[in-house]
Structure formats: C-alpha cells, structure tokens
Amino acid sequence: MQATVSTFNSDGSATVLRDDGVLVDVSAEAVTAGGWRMLRPGQRVTLERSPDGVVTALRRPVL
Fold this sequence. Notes:
Elements: E1 2-8, E2 14-18, E3 23-26, H1 28-33, E4 44-49, E5 55-59
Antiparallel strand pairs: 1-2, 1-4, 2-3, 4-5
C-alpha cells in the first residue's frame, strides 16, 4: 500500500496518510528499516506490513 508522509518527528518516527485516507503512525524502527534517515512531508512511500497489519518498513514508492 502506498502513502504520503504527513509528518516526520525528531525521534525518527513518522505519520503517513495512506491512499485510502487513513492516518498511520510509523515507528522510528520501521523508518530506518526502509533505509531512510529522514523523510519530508509530501514524500511518497510504500508501506511494508506484517500479517497483523503493523508497519514494519517504509520503502521507496513503486511507480
């Protein structure tokens, strides 16, 4: 699922707006698992989720 970064926090966590309109909090661990050091609002990302729906990584968007 793809999303747009809404906010990037000083602790490394982020809030993203999924394409279906739902805001999702993403842990700093999930941000770094995707290889990011920082994100900017408006940036597109792809959410990688575990079977129970928890975001485990933010990846570069698939075009």
